[in-house]
Design goal:
alpha+beta; seven-stranded mixed sheet; six-stranded mixed sheet; globular
């Protein structure tokens, strides 16, 4: 609806309230808050009326909730143990008299009792409610003209004594209460139908007789141990090694990956789809139109698949620079139906949008709402923290093809938007090309799904997308490249000899003033490039990860704890779209200007170099073991394993050669292998798909590799060092920013960055995991 963005309803059994309803409104919806509040109380009265006239329906609703609660408890997946322990500790207070209910108390439900339900709903009256309105424009007198029932103009503004927040309050008049209690119920308000998405089949496909050939782990049946004997079901065992999904090549060219889960044994399935298209990111306008469609679609689908979400099946459709991604997950029985509903609606919605707002006025309202929301989100992006703005400026300079946020805003607001406004019909045509034009698709079916069902998923994708389009060739696929920052010597050739006189050791300086007038922080993102991932290979990437791991603690100790430059201090490996790699040092400070922050970062780099040289070998071994542990950390539930697997597949989405298209599902293990030392014998090679012929390094050898990389790419005296200083000034530092404009090597606008990019070459984009 054009009035609200989202809403939640919940029952609260604390001492403070009985129930709560939260509504997130659009600006237009906020103006209509009197009308919306009236609808809320009409809705409550509709439920009360239905309770007295149809007790069977309420009993059926109750039965649905009981089934969902039991289902979610029985098939709950593993979560973070620390968070789980904390939540259980809180429940111990609630179930102090009956500790046996601590683990399952919230999932237990009783029988339906109509009298209790009536007594509960009888308390849902205006006299018992507290209405809280959050509005950043509440102090503007112009807002009061929209309100009658909730007009607070006669209430004095007060200041909360602890946080200084302004507020005002008043009681609800008897006249308004009487109105909310007696206003006729809008005939458009209806009670929901019974939920058709609640599953009843929780059987596991891995237990089916015809899937025994799929249930294999490292050449052994999942029910057998290494000696071929059956496992004891009560025997405690760790998560078995990961086996990668199988590629099913469909006639349409769809690359369909499938894996039947035998590890976590839950009746859930995850389906991931990526529709790749070069049309999405063709221009700022194209990207904007595709994003608008995503918003309209998700808004529209709420009415179609709300029941599925309640029943534990979820969907998500997102627009990315490389195309559209579709995700559906949940209980297996109904999941293919949900995918069909979502993809079918993606098609039919486009047809309705092409007919225009004159034929579909409600859809036109959703489209206008989407424009307002996207414009607000895009403009709010400028309000990010200074260190985030610095990182964004890094993308704009180091990525070959990247549209600036201002170009998106210009499509929705300002002179360009006024001359060529965004239209719903144009949006539909642009998205139709992105989804059904020259496209290619990749999908993953993983969990409680056999190969036959995965083939049906492939048919849904083909019928709804690929059969209407033309196969996308490798030459047309979306491409992204990372640009080389010049060395200091190359920068002098670009900017002239005056650049050599700069006090900064950075090759390039990019400056900006924080957009918010209230911003008090300065920030710097000091980015040092280390080549590209193809040149570095597994060994170079692993060494860079280790340097970043050690650097984080060192930088925090030096720049945050000792020098107290700011609360945000970090050093980490920097990955750039298109294959670029490097090391970033980030500091945000309210007391120190960016130029001084840069000097302190340079000083820390020098001291860190010395720290590496003097670091004992046993500490090197310990740090390497820490990185290995992170790389080899096992997924503890099906959702995490799906995310990891799909992530490896998506790493190949911009690889434009089928020879390089195979995902490296053992990539993290191979990175870890580089850092497994002779001194550490705790690793079980049999549990990993490693090359046993690769010799392990000593801590001394690993240390030498770290120092060599640091001295080649990061040391100030290195002729190969490529470094750019991204500076963001607070409003107080604006005069310094203005004084630096036009200086050699200083870029003060995106136009300056765009000009420099014409001189820069790009790194090879081939991935480092390819088999040579």
């Amino acid at each position: 609806h054009e009035y609200y963005k989202k809403h939640t309803v919940g029952v609260d059994t604390s001492d403070f309230s009985l129930s709560s309803i939260d509504l997130s409104l659009t600006p237009k919806g906020l103006q209509k808050r009197d009308y919306i509040l009236s609808l809320v109380f009409q809705w409550i009265r509709l439920i009360k009326t239905s309770l007295s006239s149809s007790s069977d329906l309420m009993a059926q609703y109750h039965d649905e909730l009981c089934r969902i609660s039991e289902m979610n408890f029985m098939y709950r997946e593993n979560s973070d143990p620390t968070e789980y322990a904390s939540s259980v500790a809180e429940l111990m207070h609630q179930f102090e008299k009956d500790p046996s209910r601590v683990l399952c108390g919230n999932a237990l439900t009783g029988d339906y009792n109509g009298e209790v339900a009536k007594a509960f709903l009888d308390r849902f009256v205006p006299q018992n409610c507290l209405i809280t309105i959050h509005n950043s424009d509440a102090e503007k007198e112009s807002q009061e003209k929209y309100y009658v029932d909730t007009n607070l103009k006669d209430a004095a503004w007060q200041t909360e004594k602890y946080y200084g927040a302004k507020y005002r309050e008043m009681g609800i008049s008897q006249e308004v209460i009487k109105k909310w209690q007696n206003e006729p119920i809008d005939p458009r308000l209806k009670l929901p139908e019974l939920n058709q998405f609640i599953p009843t089949d929780f059987s596991l496909r891995c237990d089916d007789d015809d899937n025994n050939d799929e249930v294999v782990v490292n050449g052994k049946n999942d029910k057998e141990d290494a000696n071929g004997s059956s496992k004891n079901e009560d025997e405690d065992e760790s998560v078995p090694p990961f086996t990668p999904p199988k590629l099913i090549q469909r006639p349409s060219g769809l690359r369909l990956w499938h894996k039947l889960d035998t590890t976590f044994r839950v009746p859930k399935t995850h389906i991931r789809v990526h529709i790749a298209s070069p049309s999405v990111y063709r221009s700022p306008r194209s990207m904007t139109l595709n994003r608008l469609y995503q918003k309209v679609l998700n808004d529209d689908l709420n009415s179609f698949v709300y029941d599925a979400g309640v029943a534990g099946c979820n969907y998500r459709v997102t627009c990315t620079p490389t195309g559209f991604r579709i995700s559906v997950s949940g209980y297996s029985e109904k999941l293919t139906d949900l995918l069909d509903v979502v993809t079918s609606r993606m098609q039919s919605l486009l047809q309705e949008m092409k007919e225009g707002p004159g034929v579909h006025p409600a859809l036109g309202q959703k489209f206008n709402k989407a424009i307002d929301n996207l414009l607000r989100e895009t403009k709010n992006f400028r309000m990010d923290s200074p260190y985030e703005t610095a990182a964004y400026n890094g993308r704009m300079l180091m990525e070959e093809n990247a549209w600036h946020v201002d170009t998106y805003v210009a499509e929705m607001e300002g002179e360009i938007a006024e001359k060529n406004p965004l239209r719903m019909e144009e949006c539909a045509m642009a998205v139709e090309e992105s989804l059904f034009g020259r496209v290619k698709a990749e999908a993953l079916c993983m969990g409680n799904i056999n190969e036959a069902s995965a083939q049906k998923v492939g048919e849904v994708i083909e019928n709804h997308f690929l059969k209407q389009g033309v196969p996308l060739s490798d030459d047309e696929a979306p491409k992204f490249r990372s640009l080389k920052i010049p060395t200091k010597e190359e920068a002098i050739q670009i900017f002239g000899p005056d650049d050599a006189e700069s006090t900064s050791k950075a090759s390039v300086i990019v400056e900006e003033v924080a957009y918010s007038e209230n911003e008090e922080n300065n920030a710097i993102d000091f980015c040092l490039q280390a080549g590209c991932e193809h040149e570095l290979g597994y060994e170079g990437i692993a060494i860079l990860e280790l340097i970043g791991h050690i650097a984080y603690t060192s930088a925090y100790q030096k720049l945050r704890t000792e020098e107290q430059l700011g609360y945000i201090v970090s050093a980490f490996p920097r990955k750039i779209m298109g294959g670029g790699q490097g090391l970033s040092v980030v500091v945000q400070s309210s007391s120190t200007l960016p130029a001084t922050l840069e000097e302190r970062c340079e000083a820390w780099l020098e001291s860190f170099h010395k720290e590496l040289i003097e670091m004992p070998e046993d500490q090197i071994a310990m740090e390497a073991a820490g990185v290995v542990a992170q790389l080899l950390e096992r997924d503890t539930n099906l959702s995490d394993q799906v995310s990891s697997t799909w992530g490896e597949i998506l790493l190949t989405e911009t690889v434009n050669s089928m020879k390089l298209k195979t995902p490296a599902f053992d990539r993290l293990e191979r990175l870890a292998q580089v850092l497994m030392l002779e001194e550490n014998e705790d690793y079980d090679d049999d549990e990993m798909t490693l090359d046993k012929d690769v010799p392990r390094k000593t801590a001394a050898e690993l240390k030498q590799l770290m120092i060599q990389m640091f001295e080649k790419y990061f040391l100030a005296t290195s002729p190969e060092r490529r470094v750019v200083s991204f500076r963001v000034y607070s409003q107080k530092g604006k005069s310094i920013y203005e004084a630096n404009k036009g200086k050699p090597g200083v870029l003060s606008s995106y136009d300056d960055s765009r000009h420099l990019k014409q001189y820069l070459s790009s790194w090879p984009s081939a991935p480092y995991w390819i088999q040579k």
